[in-house]
Amino acid sequence: MDQEENLSTQVDEIEALSAIYPDEWKIEDEAFRTFSATITENNRTATLLITLPAEYPATSPPFYLLTAPWMKEQDRDEIYNQLEQVYLDHAGESILHLWIEKLRELLQVVDPTTEQVVHETVALVEDDIPTKFRVLEIEGSEQECPPITSADPFTERKSTFQGHVATVTNTTQVKLVLAKLYENRKIAQATHNIYAYRIYNEQTKMWLQDCDDDGETHAGGRLMHLLQILDVKNVIVVVSRWFGGILLGGDRFKLINNAARDALELGTYIASSGNDDVTKKKNKKSFECCFFIYENWRAGA
After folding, report:
1. pTM
2. pLDDT category of residue 273 using cuts at 50, 70 and 90
């Protein structure tokens, strides 16, 4: 099946889903073939964000992201495993309807008593650290935190943005990176720490990806969309924003993505868009997990 046949199959599938799920199926970005299915069961809502690559359904699964802040990680992992199994059982076929119904089925059996606190992180000693940073349980603590690369912060209309990036191959490393960043008092006190990660499983040929807005509505999903467009894998990007008192409107998403791009360029995950590569290499700051260096700069500057 060539790409033209794939596209024709995708069009037929999307039309069918729009008819079957008029209230649950939504077109998010037609140009990038990104869609969402929002399912509510037992008064709990989960959204499956789906992007269809040109190779789907012939040789590639859809890219997907499950958004359900209330859900415990073990339940989220079980849903990922079940969706991947559906794809493996029906490789080469249109599977979105099966995915939606599988998600609905799994939501019906999730134990409501196991809902987790959103934004679990490492508890810090300082009294003035925001209370949203709580204890982060990290399994497999024998793993070392990957090196973290942080770009220089920049300020736009009194809001300051800074991107951080690291290579990750499993969710434990994701937690370790977040925990390490939150050890820094300045970063922990940021108004928002938005993140997204994409991990590719070579065995199942499936993507494990997730994101978090940290209160900046839709920012996590847009950051994930950036990673998908750039086609980077095994990476987590965190963007810290310190709000300066001036509302930025839609421009904030562009600035968040710019901060993410800065970090991805410094970490050589993507090609630099500038010509001064030597300067950028000199400015690169790697944060090893044995200790953390943070550039002193005036708060809110």
Report:
1. 0.55
2. low
